[in-house]
Amino acid sequence: MFHLSKLKNGITLISVPLQGTRAATVLAMFPVGSRYETRHLSGAAHFVEHMLFKGTLKRPEAVDISRALEAAGADYNAFTNKDYTGYYVKIAGDKQEIAYDLLSDMLYHSVLAPEEVEKEKGAIVEELRMYKDNPTMAVSLLADELDFGDCPLGWDIGGTESTVRGLSREDLFRYYQTHYSPKNMVLVISGDVKPSQIKKLIAAFAGKRAPRGSNSFVFYKQHFEKFIWPEKPPALNRRVMAVEKKVDQTQAVLSFRGLPNNHSDRFAASIMLNILGVGMSSRLFIEVREKRGLAYMIKAGSSSYRDVGVSYIQAGLDPARFGEALQVIKGEVLRLAAEPVTKQELADAKTSLSGRLALSLEDSSAQAEWYAKQVMFGKKIETPDDIIRSFNKVTVKQVQQTAERLLRWDEVRLAAISPLAQEQVVKLLP
């Protein structure tokens, strides 16, 4: 069972003791990501994430940080999303104080040395190029741009080569000072956790006060550019974005409206998407792959943010049969909105989601991220058991109503990377 408390400097602390593990994960998460950036600062959140591994006052060089963690056998990393950023260390329980010391040092005392900033620009640019050269990854970036346009949600989290090279050390340090405040930090310790260790964790993090001018946690719930879906669907050619490229396989993402983080229908939407395209018994997998051999990979999923969400279908397809695959996908989307799912499908989806949730939370790092996000985006902390109970309350009627509202083919957007030109792809969309 978790325990929630508030430190004097504003940190929200969650401890999640777990039985049967010898590992502990320390995770610090902040409610800021790429959607809070201006065009000039595009990529700053991701850049700062990189820089916090490059040296502190106590550990001047990146190798001082990496050597200390790797010598202890730790798994460590960070991640930047559109509306949050996290840093974690997963380590043997008897060495977890190393994680406290290293993580607090990185978060509180990073120097962002000018020469390191300039060197890291090259590394980040190569990271951006790596994603763009991989069609499976690049099509997701293309879909975001198509869905959200010039709203920050539509921008690449990493920025562009131009914005990254244009960011100064002063830009990054100001961003770091403004957003990396104890009063907007969610700190989670999960796994092999004992009360005596929690006291040491508090000692490592409680001494830092919020920098002058830093934002509060509430700030991030209100101060961002909100996105609203247009009331009237754009013309077909504006709902397709195709990149013509010499590839052997078409990568495609079909996107529809989704739901924001705390929407009351999110459980029905999860069940709807599970039936449509999660796993080898889903409707899309059976109809597109098993019966017709049109794809190797096809799946349905969703992305949720504070104010909006997206439902999507992603597939890798034979370019010569792209149009045929789109016809089959359309048929399954329309059927889900027009006909009630069977009671067996509903029951199977509920047990599938419950089982997948249980498997996803098997280790301490997954538990840490779960509870951090609950504090970050939830109206209250929901345990995995709470979520399972909510899934079990969903009815056949709710699934169909959610499909009718979200999976509207007259609004579908198609992002594709294939050998076909834009006008050719537009003609294929039925």
Q: How large is the radius of gyration?
A: 23 Å
State which percent range the strand residues make up.
15-25%
DSSP strand tally = 11
Shape: globular
Q: Identify the quaternary structure here.
A: single chain
Number of helices: 17
Helix/strand-derived category reads alpha+beta
- Tell me about the largest β-sheet: 6 strands, mixed
Supply the CATH architecture of the largest domain: 2-Layer Sandwich
The whole-number mean of residue pLDDT values reads: 96
Order of helices and strands: EEEHHEEHHHHHEHHEEHHEEHHHHHEH
- CATH class annotation of the largest domain: Alpha Beta
The CATH topology of the largest domain corresponds to: Cytochrome Bc1 Complex, Chain A, domain 1
CATH homologous superfamily heading of the largest domain: Metalloenzyme, LuxS/M16 peptidase-like
Summarize the amount of helix as a percent range: 40-55%
The stretches of 5 or more residues where confidence is low (pLDDT under 50) are none
Looking at this protein, list some descriptive labels.
430 residues; alpha+beta; six-stranded mixed beta sheet; 17 helices; 11 strands; globular
Brief rundown of the structure:
The protein is an alpha+beta fold. The chain is 45% helix and 18% strand. The protein is built from 17 helices and eleven strands.
